Amino acid sequence: MDERGNTVKCEKILLGFTALFLAFLLALFFRDRAALEAAPVTVETEAAVPQEVFMPDVSPLDINAASAEELAALPGIGEVLAGRIVAYREEHGPFAAVEDLMKVSGIGEKKLAELEGRITTGN
User: Fold this and answer.
1) CATH number (domain holding residue 58)
2) Which of 3, 29, 36, 72 could disulfide-link 82, Cβ–Cβ 3.0 to 4.6 Å?
3) CA 114, CA 98: separation in Å to the nearest integer?
4) What total of structural domains would you count in the chain?
């Protein structure tokens, strides 16, 4: 019975330490939560950064002279869309303005806005 009594006593001690540890973690949680609520958090989402800041040495690509491979390297333009641009250019002649690129199937205002500052007509 003495051995069983020691086992029960050890279990109670371990349970007590576990309860203290959990109470300590709970206190830390509430302290950190209060600190987060007290400090204002500002998150900066989209910032207008000029092209020169993130692409200082990149000159705009001439869409009237660029190959399909060069066009495919532009953001949002894959091989298929680059092929359409080249085919449209061969069928209708050179683009007079960057906005004429929207005549190509698959290019809308949003995609054209993403390409702003990265393309030119060479004129």
Assistant:
1) 1.10.150.320
2) 72
3) 12
4) 2
Question: In whole angstroms, what is the distance from residue 90 CA to residue 88 CA?
Answer: 5
**What does the block give as tokens for 6?**
């020691």
User: For 39-48, what is each residue's pLDDT tens digit?
Assistant: 776 777 776 6
- 116 with 56, same domain? yes
CA atoms within 13 A on the CB side of 113: 4
pLDDT tens per residue across span 64-114: 999 999 999 888 888 999 999 999 999 999 999 999 999 999 999 999 888
Structure tokens at 76: 């949002």
Q: Does 21 lie in the same domain as 1? A: yes
Domain of 9 in residue numbering reads as 1-43
Which residues fall within 8 angstroms of residue 90, CB to CB, at 6 or more apart? Answer: none
Q: Which helix (H) or strand (E) is 7 found in, with range? A: helix 2-38
Look at the chain and count its residues.
Answer: 123
- The Cα diameter of the chain in Å comes to 100
Angle, alpha carbons 112-81-55 (nearest 5°): 50
Element (H, E) at 12: helix 2-38
